[in-house]
Design goal:
This protein is α/β, with parallel strands linked by helices. It has helices at residues 19-31, 46-53, 72-79, 91-104, 142-152, 180-187; strands at 62-66, 83-88, 109-112, 125-131, 153-164, 191-195, 210-217.
Amino acid sequence: MATRPVRRTSARSLVGLSAQARARWRTMYAQTPYQKLPWFDPGPSRSTRLAVSTGFLPMGGSILDIGCGAGSNVIFLAKHGFVAHGIDISPGAVAAARERASKARVRVDVREGDALALPFADGSLDGAIDHGCFHTLPIRRRAEYATEVRRVLRRDGRFVLTWVAREHTGARGPPHRPSVEEVARALEPKFLFTRTAFQAEREGGGPACYLAFLLRRSTPQPPRM
């Protein structure tokens, strides 16, 4: 699939994550080797594998991993013929992802970026994935995040969202563990649900209850005559 080059956006009135949040994530990667962080998995997420194997993500398309961490999903996408982009708020994560991609001999675009102010032009991407970013955001900003993801996707763009659900009761994990209903409220009507949530098996020693939605960017309905 031919894709347009991704352009940087012009200045917008979006307000990104707080300085406190930025500092917290940067400190985590600065103080701890990425391999020892509780969310690190050397391979792609189950939901990403599913989206690729079923053709949900358009083959050869331009796909963004939001909160890409050390780049496991970005590398997997690049190996499978996608134009792979990744953003993370932590310079340490970006450096790790770039180093791993270089060792894997794949070409990726990984840069520092804010999930609430994505550095991509309107309608410039075929799809996006989020494995573990959504549930770290402040509750009051979930709908704003969904609007921002929708902005960068093309008409009928695809979105794969995976989060730690409220049903996960482990001591470790994100502070905001939304239910299916709460996620749906944040995403509708910006996205159309194409698959129901599923419960994933434990991955990489992490939380045992990941849920995933496979979604399609909605388009405004024409006014009735």
